[in-house]
Amino acid sequence: MPLTSFSRRKFLMGTAAFAGATSLPTFATADAHAPLTAGFIYVGPKDDFGYNQAHAEGAAAVKAMEGVIVVEEENVAETTDVQNSMESMINFDGAKLLFPTSFGYFNPHVLETAPKHPDVRFQHAAGLWTDGMPTNVGSYFGYIGMGQYLNGIAAGHATTTKKIGFVAAKPIPQVLLNINSFLLGARQVDPEITCQVIFTGEWSLAVKEAEATNALADAGCDVITCHVDGPKVVMETAAGRDCFVCGYHADQSPLAPEKYLTGAEWNWAGVYTGMVQTMLDGGTIDNFVRGGLADGFIKLSPLGPAVSDASRAQFEAVKAQIMAGGFAAIKGPLNDNAGNPLLTADKTLVETDIALESMDYLVEGVIGSTS
Amino acid sequence: MTDRSVTAPLVVPAHRGLLGRFARRAEAVVLPLAALLVGIAVFSIFLLLQGKSPIQFFALTYQGAFGSAFSWQNTLSRTAPLLFAALCVALPARLGLVVIGGEGAIVLGGVAAGASGVVFSQSIGVIAFPLMAACAMLVGGLWIGAVGALRYYRGVNETIASLLMAYIAIALMNHLVEGPLRDPESLNKPSTTPLPAQLRVGDIPGWEVHWGLAFGILACLLAWVLIEKTTWGFAARIAGGNMRAAQVQGLSVGRLIIGFTALGGALAGLAGFFEVAAVHGSANGSLAAGYGYTGILVAFLARHNPLAIIPVAILLAGFEASSGLIQRRMNLPAATVLVLQGFVFVSILMSDTLYGRFKMFAPERWRSD
């Protein structure tokens, strides 16, 4: 047999014919008078004990509302995949309100899809909307750095080695603010405390998260928190090394019931039900919404069994101050961890300060480097 | 059944008419299709065990992937990177090399396209596009070509080398977009400087699918011509059949290995160019979307035939396009489509052992039994 006849040029010809014959539309478009359909899109699994679960809990609260249908999709990449998922929800499910929840969905994917569907509302979880962008797009975000500050207070009371640890994804402003807040909270308890940070480089990379947690435990850190998409691995690994843990994104107390101190959680349930109610009432959601603890955008996990009375008292006192508004975790005098001055004694950056959103430094007392 | 293929005559007797010709060709179509159906059947059992309806599953797959103009657009827009990624596997496979690290060439090609786009940001698309594409192909070609060189000169296993190099490539991309190439404006999502509007690749007129699809299909056609109709392709297939025999024949095996791996890598780099210029607008971490790995599946299902890659890539893109609808309507997790792909993959690999075992596909054996 000559070698050329190995060419399988008619391979799957039948499939091609099948594909060609299938372009008949077979679905009915959604009824215009149907209840409001809200679509939620997650970048990872919605039971990840983290970022995605926090949003999925918000979706679950919306699902319980009258006159709303919720459709959800998980593991959607930040590529044309998310554009297609949004289009699919609009085309097949008649969605009028979309929550593409991952940071990377916004530019270019939400910005490209929104102008094609002026009657659909796109709500994106980050403070990225600015004037001039499509008006059917909205941004919302919460000041969760305050949650890490309160985590730090609980950590400061729990540590005996005066070393606490932070497993971080990437050295970007939001993450740096969380790291700095965590340390500064702990230093309210004891100014000798240091915080070691390890960056994994990825939002979701279980192996490196476990390695980083073990490395922190080896270095003597006895309270560990994190900012990665799914804190499950960090929580379980740290608790397995007999460290205390502070949660992030969602409630991780079931993963380490004895070792869990508290956690900085998103409170999307309140935010989302509010937005959906606005839509149901025929109103318009503001294009730019932000809030903190007092506005119900974030919340703290219930304090765990290992939290002492002194810790609880200080935690509740600072929480009350934050609830009162105008609280500043980042305030002068403050140096970065290379000794360069950042803020003079009279300067404070309150939680709403826009300067916090371009943070590119680690404060004195954080062991680690942004690059 | 005894295996008679070894006793088949070395010189093929004249075709026994049209029917014999058809039978010979049919094997390459019927076996993969049968394997596909077996994979689907096993998956259906899996669904039944989960208490879900396979009929509903495949009806939704059809609706989400091919059931409407929108579905086709959804499917085809996922196809383009798969075509290039599959060629990155299929071309070296003709030399018997299993290269599975196309993901690395895609992400680095994307970075090269993003970085070169910044350099050429003052020029118009006609000038800049070929240069950006060339940069992406050069980087992708060097990356996978290095896998071929390691194999030829140092005897390093190309499968392991390419896979591990993909991780290095992703780390390198992260370093570059978070460090030297970072746009200072990109605060929370480190990216290269966004490409200006005239350097964005648009959609094919009348379709909501970018030009990458057309170039991907063109690349498949050209790759088929290269393999089937040129002496280089012929030499590559000989070397793939028996490398030592090819060397004895005086074929330059080293050049073939490095050339085919580099070409595969260059095409994967081109996928990165289209991801940046047509989809993202800048190079960033979203480039590592796993197309390189789905491309492996496409190439194996297509049995490394560049023409077959086209329908197979569309089919797999269709599975992925319908994944969302299945999640929403059947309340199945996103991994369901991966399970289906896994069953089909194993089934197709197992079907490889069946070639030459069925008499009905071998006209020369019809009369002798």
Fold and architecture overview:
The complex is a heterodimer of chains A (371) and B (369). Chain A is α/β, with parallel strands linked by helices and 371 residues long. Chain A is built from ten helices and 17 strands. Chain A is 34% helix and 20% strand. Chain A has a seven-stranded mixed β-sheet, sandwiched between helices. Residues 1-32 of chain A have low confidence and may be disordered. Chain B has 369 residues and is mainly alpha-helical. Chain B has helices spanning 17-49, 54-66, 69-93, 102-119, 125-154, 158-178, 212-229, 231-241, 243-248, 253-280, 291-301, 306-330, 336-351. In chain B, helix 5 (125-154) packs antiparallel against helix 10 (253-280), helix 8 crosses helix 10 (253-280) and helix 11 crosses helix 12. Chain B starts with 16 loop residues before the first helix and ends in an 18-residue tail after the last helix. Chains A and B meet through helix 1, strand 2 and helix 3 of A and helix 1, helix 2, helix 3, helix 6 and helix 7 of B.
Low-confidence stretches of chain B: none
Q: What order do the SSEs of chain A take from the amino end to the carboxyl end, as H and E?
A: HEHEHEHEEHEHEHEHEEHEEHEEEEE
Structural class of chain A: alpha/beta
Quaternary = heterodimer
Question: Keywords, please?
Answer:
heterodimer, A: 371 residues, alpha/beta, Rossmann fold, 2 domains, six-stranded parallel β-sheet, 10 helices, 17 strands, globular, B: 369 residues, mainly alpha
Summarize the structure.
The complex is a heterodimer of chains A (371) and B (369). Chain A is of the alpha/beta class and 371 residues long.
Helix and strand arrangement:
The complex is a heterodimer of chains A (371) and B (369).
Chain A: H1 13-20, E1 36-41, H2 51-63, E2 68-73, H3 80-93, E3 97-100, H4 106-113, E4 121-125, E5 137-142, H5 145-158, E6 163-168, H6 173-189, E7 194-199, H7 206-218, E8 223-227, H8 232-240, E9 244-249, E10 260-266, H9 268-280, E11 288-291, E12 298-300, H10 309-324, E13 330-331, E14 334-335, E15 341-343, E16 348-349, E17 366-367
Parallel strand pairs in A: 1-2, 1-3, 3-4, 4-5, 5-11, 6-7, 6-8, 7-17, 8-9, 9-10
Antiparallel strand pairs in A: 10-12, 13-16, 14-15
Helix pairs in contact in A: 2-9, 3-4, 5-6, 5-10, 7-8
Chain B: H1 17-49, H2 54-66, H3 69-93, H4 102-119, H5 125-154, H6 158-178, H7 212-229, H8 231-241, H9 243-248, H10 253-280, H11 291-301, H12 306-330, H13 336-351
